[in-house]
Design a protein that fits this description.
With 209 residues, the chain is an alpha+beta fold. The chain folds into 2 domains: 34 residues, no CATH class; 145 residues, Nucleoside Triphosphate Pyrophosphohydrolase (Alpha-Beta Complex). Helix content is 18%, strand content 39%. Strands 7-4-9-8-11 form a 5-stranded mixed β-sheet. Strands 1-2-3 form a 3-stranded antiparallel β-sheet, with no helix packed on it. It has a 3-stranded antiparallel β-sheet with strand order 6-5-10. The relative contact order is 0.18.
Length: 209
C-alpha cells in the first residue's frame, strides 16, 4: 500500500545561476539532472516563506482584508498574511505580528491549520496557515500601514458564506481558500482541538524557538 506523504528529495544540480535579485525574492536557474540522465533548465522564484492567519471570532466569522494585488490586477479578499522576513523566525511570532499589524487584532488560542507550497512548479514559497481563536482588539495605536495596505478594507464573514463564495468562484486567494476548506475539514474530522500545536515543526522553514 502506498503511503500518501510528501517526502524530501533533491536531484543533482550541475549548475546554478541567479539572474535576478529583488527586494524580497529572486529568480534562480538550475541545471537539473533528470532520471534518464538528461540535464534541463528549471527557473523558479526563491521566496523566504510566509504565514497566514485564519482568525475566527465567537460568531463563527472569519476576519478578512481586501487588498489590491498588482500581478493579477485584482482587489482580493484575503486572510491576514505576511513574509517571514527574518531567516529562522518562529512562524507563530510572525503570524501574531501580521494579525496585529494588518488588523489590529490579537488571539488567545493558536493552532496550525495546514502547511502548503503555493506554486511548487515555479516557486519555492512555503506557507503555514494558522487558526487563531479567542480574538479581540489589540491595545495601543494601530500600526502605520503603507503602499497597498493604505487602501485595505475589512470584513468579518461567516464560515458557511465563505464556503459558498469559494465554490462559486467569487474569491481566489490561496490562503483564504485553503484555510477555510481546511477548517471545515478539521471540524468534520477529529475536531479543531486535534490540530497541531502552534509550535509544531515545519521542515519547509525550520525555525528557532
Amino acid at each position: 500500500m502506498t503511503t500518501i506523504k510528501d517526502t524530501p528529495e533533491e536531484w543533482e544540480i550541475r549548475a546554478t545561476d541567479t539572474p535576478f535579485v529583488g527586494n524580497k525574492t529572486s529568480v534562480r536557474t538550475d541545471d537539473v539532472v533528470m532520471p534518464d540522465g538528461s540535464v534541463v533548465h528549471r527557473d523558479y522564484q526563491v521566496h523566504p516563506g510566509s504565514v497566514a492567519v485564519l482568525a475566527l471570532d465567537e460568531q463563527d466569522r472569519v476576519l478578512l482584508i481586501n487588498q489590491y494585488r498588482h500581478p493579477v490586477r485584482h482587489k482580493l479578499w484575503e486572510i491576514p498574511a505576511g513574509l517571514l522576513d527574518v531567516p529562522g523566525e518562529n512562524p507563530l511570532h510572525a503570524a501574531q505580528r501580521e494579525l496585529y499589524e494588518e488588523a489590529h487584532v490579537k488571539a488567545e488560542d493558536w493552532r496550525v491549520l495546514t502547511d502548503v507550497y503555493t506554486t511548487p512548479g515555479g516557486c519555492d514559497e512555503a506557507v503555514r496557515i494558522f487558526l487563531a481563536r479567542g480574538v479581540s482588539e489589540a491595545e495601543g495605536e494601530r500600526f502605520a500601514v503603507e503602499h497597498e495596505e493604505t487602501d485595505m478594507a475589512y470584513a468579518r464573514v461567516p464560515v458557511d458564506e465563505l464556503v459558498r463564495r469559494i465554490l462559486a468562484g467569487d474569491v481566489h486567494n490561496n490562503c483564504l481558500v485553503v484555510g477555510v476548506l481546511s477548517l471545515v475539514a478539521a471540524r468534520g474530522g477529529d475536531g479543531l482541538d486535534a490540530l497541531r500545536p502552534a509550535d509544531a515543526e515545519w521542515p519547509a522553514r525550520p525555525f528557532t524557538s
